[in-house]
Design brief:
The chain is α+β, with helices and mostly antiparallel strands. Helix content is 20%, strand content 36%.
Length: 306
């Protein structure tokens, strides 16, 4: 006997402006309940301390959550100099205090920031969700166990100094996936010789979505209180896949793709992942593979009719 699925079919992406103090999964469960959705997931957790852009995927959109997780991100962070904490943020225990250089200027800080722009190697924090032998690192850290962590390559596209105060500075960061802002701030603090930790972190962009497109939990609750549907706030899954080229399929090829069969296209040169469209709708992701001078389009992630 099959189990009845709780909730209704909801398909699309909703961008939430995550508030401080709540986990990403906690927000996901709240929003999933507000929509009455059967299936939902987020696209990369934000720390409870962090706020800002958190895309949530519903139904068919969850098929593309990994691509969204792998996308570039952008943040604004405030760092407190002179104090190093266990976690790299203000929620951790203080482990070291040093005097902030009295002669620190914006020019000096800019010189330090320059070393962290572009392709760098970064050692992830022990208080990250990276896994070691199936367990997240933060679980080991809470038990007082230190795991050796190899440095990983990340790219910092933009690292701008927004403000410098007596013992604080604000930065804007645009970076590749897997970049830990806490680790970046700790490394900057070490380079300054006084240490530093994150006191505020706001994600301003993820998967191409920005704060201008984000909704607050309060706004969603107000809509539901009026007994109105939230579905109009959802955007189509392809809104998060603009990094891939698009391809329009005519009816015969579209039928083959929807049946899981590859199609050969002698008039196409696009290779790699590609957004597929047909009958005036997004049908999923395919992959262009060169084949005897032609291009073979293979279906990879298809969405059901909606």
């Amino acid at each position: 006997m099959s189990r009845r699925r709780k909730g209704r079919d909801v398909n699309g992406i909703l961008v939430i402006d995550k508030p401080i103090g709540l986990t990403s999964n906690g927000i996901l469960q709240q929003v999933k309940h507000l929509f009455g959705a059967a299936k939902a997931g987020h696209t990369g957790a934000l720390d409870p301390l962090a706020t800002g852009v958190l895309p949530l995927c519903f139904g068919e959109a969850t098929k593309f959550s990994q691509m969204m997780l792998d996308s570039d991100k952008a943040y604004v962070a405030t760092a407190r100099m002179g104090i190093t904490t266990e976690t790299g943020d203000s929620e951790g225990k203080v482990v070291l205090e040093k005097t902030v250089p009295t002669d620190l200027t914006e020019a000096r800080l800019e010189d330090v920031l320059e070393a962290f722009r572009g392709d760098i190697q970064q050692v992830p924090s022990m208080y990250s969700a990276l896994k070691h032998k199936g367990r997240p690192l933060y679980e080991y850290a809470r038990e007082g166990i230190e795991i050796e962590r190899p440095a990983r390559p990340v790219t910092i596209y933009e690292l701008s100094l927004l403000a410098l105060r007596d013992n604080e500075f604000d930065i804007a960061v645009s970076c590749t996936k897997g970049t830990y802002i806490r680790s970046l701030v700790e490394d900057i603090g070490q380079a300054l010789g006084c240490g530093a930790h994150v006191t505020a972190l706001r994600r301003t962009m993820a998967s191409g979505f920005t704060l201008e497109q984000a909704h607050t939990i309060g706004a969603l609750e107000a809509i539901r209180a009026r007994d109105e549907s939230l579905d109009a706030l959802l955007v189509e899954p392809d809104a998060a896949l603009s990094m891939f080229p698009s391809l329009e399929l005519e009816s015969d090829r579209l039928r083959s793709i929807l049946n899981g069969q590859p199609v050969r296209m002698s008039d196409q040169t696009v290779s790699g992942l590609v957004r597929l469209y047909g009958d005036d709708r997004f049908v999923g992701l395919g992959e262009g593979i060169p084949d005897d001078g032609d291009m073979k389009i293979v279906p990879r992630r298809l969405v059901k009719n909606s």
